[in-house]
Design goal:
The complex is a heterodimer of chains A (508) and B (522). Chain A is mainly alpha-helical and 508 residues long. Chain A is 73% helix and 3% strand. Chain A is globular, with a radius of gyration of 22 Å. A two-stranded antiparallel ribbon of chain B has the order 1-2. Chain B is mainly α and 522 residues long. The chains are: A mainly alpha (508), B mainly alpha (522).
Chain lengths: 508, 522
């Protein structure tokens, strides 16, 4: 069984759903996402830890340009692929609990989104990655524009803003990706190639690396989003329907972070070192800005949105610690954040349904009395989000801080403040929604059985990962080493080279 | 005259009739169509004439495909029948087929008397084919005029509409200025190099003691560029484009937008990358500046448009800037990228124009963006082609537009024009603003409640149907005349955009052959 089956399976089911008609489409696509989850599990089971790139599919796509249809799994993406299929399955099932206008189309877009995201995660060719990275935005454009919340004008405006912001980054990345291939082949006098493994070998001159790095960074930082490039966040998040938003925030932002690890660090090591401080500053600003904004919002959805900015700041921080601990922490935190974001958005939806459709915190309150199950689910997720010791998020943030502590100690101290701020804004939401006086407008029902079915698996996984965070760490360890190996070889990182974890693996 | 040609074709010892056959087919077709148009029988005029036009173009397509790979020149070196010319010929002829199909039920063809309309179309196509094949400044100008003059008339064929007449007149005036400039430029080129032959010019420019930096040559290059820039709507010589595109009958606009541009770029490639390649360091920076201006002007201009045809006019300007990038680098890769993009451009634009043609016949709002609101829900068979066309023009992956832009950027970076690649990308970013607006209108808005529509916007008025002004939404909805051929055109092009976006290799091979036709390039 090849990876092609995994990535195209959701799309196939989406198309079947389109022809099966409005009644059957939701079920068909949910079934397709479950099937993809099954396939992903089979890959994880067969995955051999520490054996480099596996299940490789490598076919020439556009031979004239040296573009390959190359897919593969290694430690960096294996868990993320599993996560993606899992969360899309949750989102598809969650979406099934609601009636959608023109359902066949909605579920087709959801299926295309899943295919595109999986494609971006497993692509091992730079251009293929860029193509999937751009493509995955389109379904969200339509889902937000056609089925989003809010009135039409603001919705369309928010959606357009989101698309233009992200595509601007993506187009810069496209130019940079082409330049990478062309310049690498001309500087080394080889045939043009875009395979990431080849580009890792054909190191670019420092000057080329630097501008190309900036283009890639722009694309990824917009997608995350990071502090100065987050302009689309509030409007875009407000416009999106919740199941789409859950995967958008949970999974798509991770593609960007993953892009840093898959492409930027290994292929542009000199530039990564050169711009380390800049990226760390951006990460730090994202943490502080995101936390403060999350605290200041009254819209529950936006609290979660800005908390994502802060969390992704942490992830960026870990990646640009440029050492193994930081990267491992970032990978773990990517999984953790995705796992808490999805139920958080679902819970926001449930809370809004109980507060007369309003997502405003001031319209909520006192739900815990009548809905203890909902409250405890929310509590688990909230505690995980604020990285309570014992949660996997704690392990993730700890690793990140540990990594950054070794790299740039000053950043570590400031970032630690971010951990505290997370507690402030998450507890605020929890208290406002769950405790306090019962708001007269609130109809405090218990969580419905259907919703429980959708959310419970995620909660179970959060708890399981808290007990056994090594699930991801073990598989990613060697790949994380390889990802930073090129950077580690750089003179500026000599201090790191003395550390016990130094690897001799990877490319020269 | 046809009979004489046919007998000659049988004997034909000293002229390469085979190489000439696509041209002869079109001439024959045009003459027959013109004569048949004189019959009073409605069947002959409305059914047989377009059918024969299609046969003529189809025949030319078949002959052109048959000639692929021969790479000869005919009529004592005046016309090159190489793969570059033939591939662009195919683009032109396919556009011609689309134009005929879109014109079938149009008022433009009706008012022009069917025979004349289709004959003009065929003659214009012939001019374009001569232009892209021309190996000689004289044939070049001949082709240029033969393509232009029928188009001036065709723009004005909706005689009852003021806009159409205005468009024809405007195009005539501006086009004549362009022709004059071109002619002057060609004369200067001849003066500087002493040859009207492209290869002779190349020798004079490249040769030892050549005229590389001669002021006469440079002036000639500049004026020739300006003349061709008018036709290709390269800024700042594009001002006529939006007005003429908006005013001309939509099938004619579609034909102009794609075929004229393809022909102009065909000759630009030949002129600059064959005859003037020796002076590359002189003209490349100037053209790069033009391309930059064109990309910016086109994309910014398109932003505020509410008429879809105007918007596509400006978008066509921007696309001309992208295409120019392939000429600038002066490499084989550049030629391949340009040819590739021309094919892609054909599919995307014809898909868009076909939906406009269909929609114009249904709604009193014409090509106004309002008329497309909420179409996704009601008429997905129209909304999907337009959506794919817009996404393709914007360069979204999984459409051919993505691969086309990719190829151009590749050629630019490879040719040492990385900064122009960034300009191209920046232009694409701006273009998202208007392409996505169309998509949003199609899918994310409800159809407007049509209240009093100004009579000028009511096409039915001229046909003697009751005015729809003040008609309700329902009146707008009852309509449409069946127009399967328009939908077929739209969907074939849409399929091409997507298929070529996923499996581009066949087109790469074709473009590769075209690129190899011009020898002596890096």
């Amino acid at each position: 069984m090849t990876l092609s089956i995994l990535i195209w399976l959701p799309l196939a089911f989406g198309l079947i759903g389109l022809f099966a008609g409005a009644k059957a489409a939701p079920k068909v696509v949910a079934l397709g996402s479950l099937a993809a989850l099954g396939v992903a599990i089979s890959f994880v089971v067969r995955f051999k830890t520490g054996h480099g790139l596996q299940f490789v599919t490598d076919r020439s796509w556009i031979s004239q340009l040296g573009i390959h249809y190359k897919l593969g799994l290694d430690g960096l993406n294996v868990v993320l692929v599993l996560l993606t299929t899992f969360l899309f399955a949750v989102a598809a099932i969650g979406a099934n609990l609601r009636e959608w206008d023109r359902p066949a189309q909605f579920y087709l877009w959801l299926a295309i989104a899943e295919s595109a995201v999986l494609g971006a995660f497993v692509a091992q060719d730079l251009i293929l990655f860029v193509a999937f990275f751009d493509l995955m935005l389109i379904p969200f454009y339509f889902m937000a524009g056609m089925w989003g919340s809010g009135d039409r004008e603001t919705r369309v405006r928010g959606t357009t803003k989101l698309v233009i912001y992200t595509l601007v980054g993506s187009l810069l990345m496209l130019a940079a990706a082409i330049a990478t291939g062309v310049l690498a082949s001309s500087q080394h006098g080889t045939h043009i190639t875009f395979a990431i493994s080849d580009l890792q070998r054909l190191k670019l001159s420092t000057g080329s690396q630097e501008w190309i790095f900036l283009c890639f960074a722009a694309a990824f930082l917009v997608k995350m989003p990071a502090f100065p490039l987050h302009g689309w966040l509030a409007d875009g998040y407000r416009a999106m329907p919740l199941p789409a938003l859950a995967v958008f925030s949970g999974v798509l932002s991770k593609v960007a972070a993953y892009g840093f690890l898959r492409i930027v660090l290994p292929v542009f090591p000199d530039a990564s070192v050169h711009f380390q401080t800049l990226l760390l500053l951006i990460a730090l600003c994202s943490i502080l800005y995101g936390s403060v904004m999350a605290f200041a919002q009254t819209n529950a959805r936006l609290v979660v949105a800005y908390s994502s900015v802060a969390q992704l700041g942490f992830i960026t921080l870990g990646i640009f610690a440029l050492n193994e601990q930081g990267v491992q922490g970032a990978l773990l935190q990517m999984v953790n954040h995705a796992l808490v974001t999805v139920p958080l958005f679902f819970i926001v939806g449930l809370l809004a349904a109980r507060a007369g459709g309003s997502e405003d915190l001031r319209d909520m309150g006192g739900i815990a009395f009548r809905a203890p199950v909902l409250a405890s689910l929310f509590l688990i997720v909230a505690l995980a989000t604020l990285a309570m010791p014992g949660s996997a998020n704690f392990a993730g943030e700890f690793l990140i801080l540990f990594g950054i502590f070794r790299a740039k100690i000053v950043f570590a101290f400031v970032a630690a403040a971010g951990v505290v701020l997370a507690a402030v804004y998450m507890l605020r939401v929890f208290i406002r929604a769950m405790h306090n006086r019962v708001n007269p407008r609130v109809d405090s029902r218990e969580i419905g059985f259907g919703d429980l079915i959708a959310i419970a698996p995620v909660i179970v996984v959060i708890l399981a990962l808290a007990l056994y965070p090594q699930f991801g760490l073990k598989r990613s360890a060697s790949s994380a080493k390889e990802s930073v190996a090129a950077v580690g070889a750089h003179p500026a990182q000599v201090a790191d080279a003395a550390a016990p974890s130094t690897s001799t693996r990877g490319t020269p | 005259m046809t009979a004489a040609l046919v007998t000659a074709a049988v004997k034909g010892p000293h002229i390469d009739w085979v190489g000439l056959s696509p041209f002869m087919t079109l001439i024959g077709g045009a003459v027959v169509v013109l004569l048949l148009g004189l019959f009073s029988s409605r069947f002959v005029r409305t059914e047989l004439v377009p059918a024969l036009a299609l046969v003529a173009i189809g025949g030319a397509i078949g002959l052109a495909i048959g000639l692929l790979g021969r790479n000869t020149s005919i009529i004592s070196g005046a016309l090159a029948i190489d793969d570059l010319a033939l591939v662009i010929d195919l683009v032109l002829l396919v556009t011609g087929i689309a134009a005929v199909l879109l014109s079938l039920r149009s008022r433009a063809a009706e008012e022009a008397g069917h025979g004349e309309f289709y004959a003009l179309l065929l003659f214009s196509l012939l001019g374009m084919m001569v232009l892209v094949s021309s190996q000689n400044l004289v044939t070049l100008f001949l082709g240029f005029e033969l393509l232009s003059i029928p188009l001036y008339v065709m723009c004005a064929t909706e005689m009852h509409r003021e806009g159409s007449l205005e468009a024809g007149l405007k195009y005539l005036v501006v086009g004549s200025v362009g022709s004059a400039t071109l002619l002057y430029g060609l004369a200067l080129l001849y003066g500087a190099t002493g040859s009207t032959d492209l290869s002779g010019i190349a020798r004079a420019v490249n040769g030892a003691g050549g005229v590389k930096d001669d002021a006469l040559l440079l002036t000639g290059i500049a004026m020739t560029t300006v003349g061709l820039a008018f036709k290709a709507s390269v800024a700042p010589f594009h001002q006529w484009t939006p007005d003429v595109y908006e005013g001309a009958p939509t099938p004619v606009t579609a034909f102009m937008a794609v075929a004229t541009k393809a022909a102009a770029f065909g000759v630009l490639l030949r002129l600059f990358d064959v005859a003037l390649i020796g002076a590359h360091h002189d003209w490349a920076p100037a053209l790069a500046a033009l391309a930059t201006i064109t990309i910016i002007v086109g994309n910014v201009g398109a932003l505020g448009q509410t008429s879809l045809k105007r918007m596509l006019g400006y978008s066509g300007v921007a696309q001309a800037g992208y295409l120019l990038c392939g000429v600038i680098v002066g490499t084989q890769l550049g030629i391949k990228a340009t040819v590739f993009y021309l094919v892609v451009y054909l599919a995307m634009n014809i898909a868009a124009f076909a939906t406009i043609v269909a929609r114009e016949r249904e709604t009193p709002l014409g090509d106004d963006l309002e008329g497309f609101a909420g179409l996704g829900r009601r008429r997905p068979q129209l909304a999907i082609p337009l959506t794919v066309a817009m996404l393709g023009l914007a360069g979204i992956p999984a459409t051919a537009g993505f691969i086309g832009k990719f190829y151009l950027i590749d050629a630019l970076v490879d040719g040492g024009y990385a900064w122009l690649a960034i300009v191209l990308v920046l232009g694409s970013m701006i273009s998202l603003g208007y392409y996505l607006r169309v998509v949003a209108t199609l899918w994310m808005r409800e159809e407007p409640v049509v209240t009093a529509v100004p009579p000028s916007l009511v096409p039915a008025a001229a046909e003697g149907k009751p005015l729809m002004a003040g008609g309700s939404q329902e009146a707008d909805r009852v309509e449409p005349r069946a127009q399967p051929e328009v939908l077929v055109v739209a969907w074939v092009c849409t399929a091409a955009v997507i298929v070529l976006g996923i499996i581009p290799s066949p087109l790469f091979r074709l473009a590769g052959e075209a690129g190899k036709a011009l020898v002596g390039l890096r």
